[in-house]
Write a structure and sequence with these properties.
This protein is of the alpha+beta class and 127 residues long. The chain has one domain. The chain has a four-stranded antiparallel beta sheet, covered by helices on one side. The radius of gyration is 14 Å and the shape is globular.
Length: 127
């Protein structure tokens, strides 16, 4: 499976129901990547392995959240949701983190995004 196909399927599958709960109100079709970073990073990890990377999000110098992306096995970094941030938001640092192994607060969003991506990839493979 090619990265560009999985990336396209992820972007097509994003919705307010796949983003982190605290970002649901700020999610929009104009900014579909908003709140999708953790679920997107884990689904991409399902397909390509590598490491999950987590940085800190700052707004006007104040730490407000975390941002997730991927480091692939070849060392390249892929951040499919970086465009969600405005000019007042910045991501600082980036450390490899273990994939969550137990229940998380984003399980329902991950399951939904993963199933949508799988369906999208299945449809595109038949074309």
């Amino acid at each position: 499976m090619e990265l560009r196909h999985v990336a396209a399927a992820l972007r097509e599958s994003w919705g307010p129901d796949t983003c982190s709960p605290e970002d649901t109100r700020s999610w929009s079709r104009d900014n579909p990547a908003r709140g999708q970073c953790a679920t997107t990073a884990v689904v991409l990890h399902d397909h390509f392995g590598g490491s999950l990377v987590r940085g800190e999000v700052f707004v006007d110098g104040e730490h407000v959240d975390y941002h997730w992306w991927n480091r692939l096995p070849d060392g390249s970094q892929i951040d499919l949701t970086r465009e969600q941030f405005s000019q007042h938001e910045s991501v600082i640092g980036g450390v490899a983190v273990e994939r969550p192994t137990g229940p998380t607060r984003l399980d329902a969003q991950y399951e939904l995004l993963s199933s949508r991506v799988s369906a999208c990839l299945a449809r595109s493979s038949r074309i």
